[in-house]
Amino acid sequence: MADMRFTARYPHAVIRSAKAYAEHLAGTKGLSAGGRCAADGLIETLDAAVTDALELRPGDVKATWRQLAAAEISDAEALVNHWQLGYGSDSAAVISIGTEHAYELMPKLRDNTPVDVGLAEMTMECLVAVIWLTASKPQVLQRIASAPWWGWATGFSANRPYHIYTANYYKVSARSTWATIGRDVLRGGADWRTALAERCYQIELSAYPARRSVGGRGPSENVPRRWAASRTNPHRPRHSRPRMASV
Length: 247
Description:
By secondary structure, the chain is mainly alpha-helical. The chain has helices at about 10-25, 35-50, 65-70, 75-80, 125, 130-135, 140-145, 175-185, 190-200, and strands at about 85-90, 95-100, 200-205. It has one domain (about 5-225). α1 runs antiparallel to α2. The longest helix has 20 residues, at about 35-50. The radius of gyration is 17 Å and the shape is globular.
């Protein structure tokens, strides 16, 4: 049974996000065969999460990193989730607003060679409403986010749910934005991850990944081209999964 402390303070906002995204996906045209399968799986999973919430079973999750990986990169524009939710306590007094997400559609090998993994890197953002509705149920998260190249810093836990204690699951430097907010702004000290989770809600203005938002410069201007090679966003620490090992 999920701890009710970790459910959304504003559940109607989460449900509204899930329904709006599902409606968008249902009306999307021109997808590849893999993209259509991913969209259908997302719709089914979103609908099930709205209905079952904390009772959602892993077997009812029809969209995971595997389905997104089968989609084409060209499907990204149509499948991006513009009804994003944030991370951290949604009842927090502090709201941190960034510009864009910091992830790459094509992760890199250790020699910096990009690898086509379809839209697998969009998985967490596509299913963020499901994660909130299930209060980051560990069995559900494991099914959604078990891509072999994602090296999570720790296993999913009901005591430190992903949608709130997000920073616990990523390896970030002491100089990262997350650490700076949690340690210095919120005065969380060595336990900055807890301060960040419980006293700050982080959300992005755009669902697109940043391409050139580095060194204090603004985000890229041409939105569709951001899919080509997204890079680090200064408003949010880089938290994409570790690079794949060369084979």
